[in-house]
Amino acid sequence: MDNNKQLLKGSPSRDTFKQMHKTLAGRFYACDIDFVLVENRPPYIIAFLDFKLPYDSVTFAEVLAYNTLSMVAPVYIVESPNPEMGPFSIRRYLNGVIKTYPTKPHITLGNAETYHDWEALGEWEAKLRKQRIGKATI
């Protein structure tokens, strides 16, 4: 990855768009996925990551999205009280059952793995990428 891409941060315009959608088109459900890990040779999706603060819940819309996305590649929930420093707890999303809104969805997650800092999280990602080699999604 080149230096210009490494320096990119979240887009304020994207955040404004999401907030405006909630405000002006609020009767429609939506969610975002925080990060998609991709490989370039061959090009395919490694995994979908969604970041949560401790005690954030998984929403109805997220369960719908996770269930669909998990048919393409694994979905992981990354949780941390401090996204700049860690520690990070990672759990694979296994499945979710949507009843009717606003009933809270029931989800099943894999066992938590804890990584104390970004270096350890990078090692987890490298291992995941190595495991996913050749499991192209396109």
How is this structure best described in words?
- The mean pLDDT is 86.
- This protein has one domain (29-132).
- Strands 1, 2, 3, 4, 5 and 6 form a six-stranded mixed sheet that branches.
- The chain has 138 residues and is an alpha+beta fold.
- 31% of the residues lie in helices and 28% in strands.
- It has four helices and six strands.
- The protein has helices at 3-7, 12-24, 60-69, 118-132, and strands at 35-40, 43-52, 75-79, 88-97, 106-109, 113-115.
- Strand 4 and strand 5 (106-109) form a beta hairpin.
- It starts with a helix and ends in a 6-residue tail after the last helix.
In short:
With 138 residues, this protein is α+β, with helices and mostly antiparallel strands. The chain contains 4 helices and 6 strands, in the order H-H-E-E-H-E-E-E-E-H.
Features:
about 140 residues, alpha+beta, single chain
Largest sheet: 6 strands, mixed
Topology as H/E string? HHEEHEEEEH
Q: Decide which structural class fits the backbone.
A: alpha+beta
Q: Could you give the distance between the termini?
A: 22 Å
What is the tally of beta strands?
A: 6
In percent terms, what proportion of residues is strand?
25-35%
Mean pLDDT: 86
Low-confidence stretches at least 5 residues in length (pLDDT < 50)? none
Count structural domains.
1
Instruction: Label the overall shape.
Output: globular
| Helical percentage | 25-40%
Cα radius of gyration in angstroms: 16 Å
Q: DSSP helix count?
A: 4
Topology:
Layout: H1 3-7, H2 12-24, E1 35-40, E2 43-52, H3 60-69, E3 75-79, E4 88-97, E5 106-109, E6 113-115, H4 118-132
